[in-house]
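Predict structure. Chain length: 152.
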Amino acid sequence: MSVERWRRLLPGLWAGWLLCTALLATPAGFALLDRAAAGRLAARMLAQEAYTSLALGVLMVVLERVAGRRGAAAGGSQFSGGLVLVLGALFCTVAGYFALQPMMPAARAGQGPLSFGQLHAASSVFYGLKCLLVLVLAWRAARPAALTPASS
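Prediction complete.
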């Protein structure tokens, strides 16, 4: 499979993974399990999602850079809109999961400057923003090739 095909396929798969986690898997756990077990299940699923997002994000950065180099060779810019979207999604992953999640156990115990609810809300905002960025990336990737500039 060519680099361009992977560059067009992966954002849709990534968006599906994010939406499935947020809209199907996590709510199902809370619908079927007691609150404590559902919280552990959600934490596990979100951990898997975060590591998957890191891997897909890094892979997408590489693919966007390859496309950017090709675009630059044709007179375009190496810095594409797709690259900005991927970097934004990676930032949301790092900030929303890897920065905030370690603070949550202390906040649940009443320690730290922020409450568990505040951390959960901030984490949810980062997740929602990541979903939006990846959906835009997938939308752009789904454009017909004739409408896709070499530098986007």
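Summary: Residues 3-143 form one domain.
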